[in-house]
């Protein structure tokens, strides 16, 4: 399983529950855009490390909407305090999926600390998060996604980027479209 | 409420926050915020999120804004240094407003030498980042400027700062 396979599973989940979806910087944004471009997606083009924080703020602001953030191992390592803040707030409408490929996949696959000793599921638990799941196969990821709408999933994948084009939307258009969707009442289509 | 001169400095800031309709606050402590932060935490109409680092707070506030909130960050000016990439590559890139209420340390009256460098660099950094900032001379001005600062942030779709130096917190 590579990142793109995990993102495809997350997209199915997000579609099923009409979740708002925040995507991490770099190739993950482009892969999400390729898998399914909808107004529910916020493509975070900069601010490495902050996808989990943006997702948390969204979930706290919109307690009647489901929110999912797609993050990566390199990014979570850069903003590990976010795991403690998420544990403290623990919104039950927020699911954080850390796609852990052990590499900085957008910058040439340099190894991250999770390719060595670091274990982000253990870090998430140590930060106080109760619902922490681990997946190493697509089937297991799908099963967890069927079971829960909240908590933290660390899914281990192989490094490697899908061959996908750049996102052509401007940042302003991404934000405007996303906020129009986020302001709709829960469940309305 | 009677005259503003009877308010303490943290009460004047809190009044400004309420008047401006701020309903979502992230905080990283400073000794000068020790009375204000519990006031925010006790307000049932404000979602308060203590964060571990200011850059994290910039992200949480951006998410809250996307969810329809009027966010602010309570912080020490040292945290501006921790936030610069996100203020540029998130707020500036997308046009996301944010009010930063900063305890400005490293200025006149500062007892800790390590606060001096960032104290001196805070205004030049804000200038470089094209972030408008407000410098109230009194408690009443602080209350009023918070309202104006939030209006500016939303009108211009960018972060703004309110700088509250050591002398502000020492007013009776």
Automatic annotation (TrEMBL), chain A:
UniProt GO BP: coenzyme M biosynthetic process
Matching CDD domains: TPP_ComE
InterPro entries: Sulfopyruvate_deCO2ase_bsu, THDP-binding, TPP_dependent_decarboxylase, TPP_enzyme_TPP-bd
Organism of provenance: Methanolobus halotolerans
Protein's recorded name: sulfopyruvate decarboxylase
Catalytic activities: 3-sulfopyruvate + H(+) = sulfoacetaldehyde + CO2
Cleaved signal peptide residues: none
MF terms in GO: sulfopyruvate decarboxylase activity; thiamine pyrophosphate binding
EC nos: 4.1.1.79
Ranges of residues in domain Thiamine pyrophosphate enzyme TPP-binding: 36-148
UniProtKB/TrEMBL annotation, chain B:
Record has Lyase as a keyword: yes
Catalytic EC class: lyase
GO biological process: coenzyme M biosynthetic process
Metal-binding recorded as keyword: no
Catalyses which reaction(s): 3-sulfopyruvate + H(+) = sulfoacetaldehyde + CO2
Alphabetical UniProt keywords: Coenzyme M biosynthesis, Decarboxylase, Lyase, Pyruvate
E.C. number(s) listed in UniProt: 4.1.1.79
Listed CDD domains: TPP_PYR_POX_like
SUPFAM superfamilies in UniProt: Thiamin diphosphate-binding fold (THDP-binding) (SSF52518)
Database matches in InterPro entries: Sulfopyruvate_deCO2ase_alpha, THDP-binding, Thiamin_PyroP_enz_TPP-bd_dom, TPP_dependent_decarboxylase
Domain Thiamine pyrophosphate enzyme N-terminal TPP-binding: 12-109
GO MF terms, alphabetically ordered: sulfopyruvate decarboxylase activity; thiamine pyrophosphate binding
The protein, known as: sulfopyruvate decarboxylase
Gene: comD
């Amino acid at each position: 399983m590579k990142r793109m396979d995990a993102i495809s599973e997350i997209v199915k989940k997000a579609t099923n529950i009409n979740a708002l979806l925040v995507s991490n910087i770099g190739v993950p944004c482009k892969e999400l855009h390729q898998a399914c471009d909808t107004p529910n997606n916020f493509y975070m083009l900069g601010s490495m490390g902050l996808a989990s924080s943006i997702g948390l703020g969204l979930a706290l602001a919109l307690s009647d909407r489901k929110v999912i953030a797609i993050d990566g191992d390199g990014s979570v390592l850069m903003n590990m305090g976010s795991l403690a803040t998420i544990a403290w707030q623990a919104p039950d409408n927020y699911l954080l999926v850390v796609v852990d490929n052990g590499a900085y996949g957008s910058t040439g696959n340099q190894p991250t600390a999770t390719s060595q000793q670091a274990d982000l599921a253990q870090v998430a638990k140590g930060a106080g998060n109760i619902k922490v799941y681990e997946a190493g196969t697509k089937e297991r990821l799908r099963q967890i996604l069927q079971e829960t709408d909240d908590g933290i999933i660390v899914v281990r994948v192989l490094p490697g980027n899908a061959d996908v084009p750049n996102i052509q939307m401007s940042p302003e258009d991404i934000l405007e479209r996303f906020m129009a969707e986020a302001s709709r009442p829960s469940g309305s289509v | 409420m009677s005259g503003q001169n009877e308010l303490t400095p943290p009460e004047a800031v809190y009044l400004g926050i309420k008047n401006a309709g701020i309903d979502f606050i992230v905080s990283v402590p400073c000794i000068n915020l020790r009375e204000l932060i519990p006031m925010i935490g006790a307000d049932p109409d404000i979602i308060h999120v203590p964060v571990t680092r200011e850059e994290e707070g910039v992200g949480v506030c951006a998410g809250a804004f996307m969810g329809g909130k009027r966010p602010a960050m309570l912080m020490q000016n040292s945290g501006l240094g921790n936030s610069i990439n996100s203020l540029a590559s998130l707020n500036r890139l997308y046009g996301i407003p944010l009010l930063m209420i900063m305890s400005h340390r490293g200025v006149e009256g500062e007892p800790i030498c390590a606060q001096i460098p960032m104290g001196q660099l805070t205004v030049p950094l804000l200038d470089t980042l094209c972030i408008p900032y407000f410098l109230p001379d009194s408690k009443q001005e602080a209350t009023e400027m918070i309202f104006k600062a939030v209006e500016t942030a939303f009108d211009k779709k960018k972060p703004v700062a309110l700088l509250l130096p050591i002398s502000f917190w020492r007013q009776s």
